[in-house]
Amino acid sequence: PIRVAPVGDGSRVLVGSQDGQLYALDLQGRVQWKMRGGPSVRRILGHERLISAWPISAKPVVHEGKVFVVAGYWPRNGIFAHAIDASGKTIWTNAAAQFRPFGSPRIVGKTLFIDGHPGGGAFDLETGAASEEKPPVREPGPPPPVLPGVNGTIVHRLISGDRVFASTAEGAIYAFDRNKVDPKAHSARRPEPAKDVGRARQIL
């Protein structure tokens, strides 16, 4: 399962999975490369199924041609923060974190901030060394958006061409005409599980 949001850099989509792998897909859905976030293929029981002992646990971040990704849930097993280049080669790894990562890491200046329980961590972008810098205070986000005809709470929106896509906490996906957002202009359909990781599938 994928439990953290993918991220794109314009030419590829980076997807972290609970199998412990970060996948780089081209815009046709084909796997370009993958890298394992933990030190081995060890499996453990998590969320009522076998998953990696080091699942991808925070949203990947793309910055200046590099990808920053975190693997691992439990500090006693090890938490691994990585910087990766565009080809999938590891630039640096820091395995010294003592917190449970979550959410979306942030980059401020030359520092990577990763939220976690308890507390979090800060890492130098160039070397991966631990930093004593404190993360800036997060500004409160905007209220949840409202779109006519949507049944549920909107958690994500995406604009692509002349379409506006919205997904809800209840598991539905809506597509709107960007130029005329009204109840008649949308359709909703629950996504089906992908059967082939190598191909993109239309779900709307």
Could you walk me through the main structural features you see in this protein, from its secondary elements to its overall organization?
This protein has strands at residues 7-8, 12-16, 21-26, 31-36, 43-46, 49-52, 61-63, 66-71, 80-84, 90-94, 100-101, 106-108, 111-117, 120-124, 154-160, 163-168, 173-177, 187-189. It has 204 residues and is mainly beta. The chain has a 4-stranded antiparallel β-sheet with strand order 1-2-3-4, with no helix packed on it. A 4-stranded antiparallel β-sheet has the order 7-8-9-10, with no helix packed on it. Strands 11, 12, 13 and 14 form a 4-stranded antiparallel β-sheet that branches.
Radius of gyration: 18 Å
Question: Any idea what the shape is?
Answer: globular
SSE arrangement, N to C: EEEEEEEEEEEEEEEEEE
Distance between the termini: 20 Å
Uncertain segments are 183-187, 194-204
Structural class: mainly beta
Defining key terms:
mainly beta; 18 strands; 4-stranded antiparallel beta sheet; 0% helix; 41% strand; disordered C terminus; 204 residues
Provide a brief overview of the structure:
The chain has 204 residues and is an all-beta fold.
Write the layout of secondary structure elements.
Blueprint lengths: L6 E2 L3 E5 L4 E6 L4 E6 L6 E4 L2 E4 L8 E3 L2 E6 L8 E5 L5 E5 L5 E2 L4 E3 L2 E7 L2 E5 L29 E7 L2 E6 L4 E5 L9 E3 L15
Antiparallel strand pairs: 1-2, 2-3, 3-4, 5-6, 7-8, 8-9, 9-10, 11-13, 12-13, 13-14, 15-16, 16-17, 17-18
